[in-house]
Specification:
- The structure is a single chain.
- By secondary structure, the protein is mainly α.
- It has 2 domains: about 140 residues, 5'-nuclease (Rossmann fold); about 90 residues, Arc Repressor Mutant, subunit A, CATH 1.10.10.
- The protein is built from 12 helices and 5 strands.
- The strands form 2 sheets. Strands 3-5-4 form a 3-stranded mixed β-sheet, covered by helices on one side.
- The longest helix is centred in the first third of the chain and has 17 residues.
- The relative contact order is 0.09.
């Protein structure tokens, strides 16, 4: 989630967006899928404490408590040298503002597929990370983040079962995938519906990631080659 999603929960001047942001946070929290970043928490504090007109004019002690509440309530992604280097590359290659590129790099390296923001619409997708405006007229939280149903759980279970079968009935498929390079792990997660229960063809994965089908096939083969070598991939 970008900073503006948090800010609108407190902005009485934007009643419609406040209602939408509160509903969105409630849904993400109930599904256990929302994340913040160190960058967002810092920007949130800065905007809270700026004078009215430029910010919300909240005193520093109250702002600190709000930031602390979010930091303790949501997973928070950190920033390291690799994030900065990837942000620099994205900023140069795709003409993205540095701070937007850093938010993208934080999500991309953590395999987070969606950034919720109203400020990043010039590039709606960058190598598999989609920028979604939750305040757009066509955004529907029930469509974007539906509550789980039995069909979705069964589909996800089928994907995990198929992966286990391909790997010789290993114990913890998702733990093994988390050890893969980012691009390989993202391809398998999409192919077998590990995050959303929707299995995809290589062609569909290629479309979502903005790469060729041949690239998806190569990443998938490399992923399976690595997985078969991991110590945890021994059959039960």
């Amino acid at each position: 989630m970008d900073t503006n999603v948090l800010l609108y929960t407190l902005d009485a001047r934007e009643a419609g967006k406040r209602e939408l942001s509160l509903a969105l946070l409630d849904r993400l929290h109930s599904l256990g899928v929302g994340m913040l970043s160190v960058q967002v928490l810092g920007e949130f504090y800065d905007r809270l404490t700026r004078p009215l007109g430029k910010g919300l004019g909240i005193d520093r002690a109250a702002a600190r408590e709000l930031v602390q509440t979010y930091a303790l309530s949501w997973p928070v992604l950190g920033i390291n040298a690799r994030v900065v280097l990837e942000a620099l590359r994205a900023s140069a290659d795709h003409q993205v503002r540095y701070w937007d590129a850093q938010l993208w790099a934080t999500a991309w390296l953590a395999q987070v597929p969606i950034i919720l923001s109203e400020d990043l619409q010039s590039s709606p997708q960058l190598f598999g990370v989609k920028f979604v405006n939750p305040f757009a007229s066509d955004f529907d939280v029930d469509v974007a983040f539906p509550l789980p149903d039995q069909r979705g759980r069964a589909t996800s279970a089928r994907g995990i079962a198929r992966l286990r079968e391909l790997l010789g009935n290993v114990k913890d498929v998702e733990s093994l995938i988390s050890q893969l390079p980012i691009e390989q792990g993202r391809v398998l997660a999409l192919r077998f519906g590990l995050h959303d229960g929707r299995l995809r063809t290589q062609e569909q994965v290629a479309t979502e990631l903005g790469v060729s089908q041949a690239t998806v096939g190569r990443l998938e083969r490399s992923a399976f080659a690595r997985l078969h070598k991991f110590p945890g991939s021994q059959p039960e």
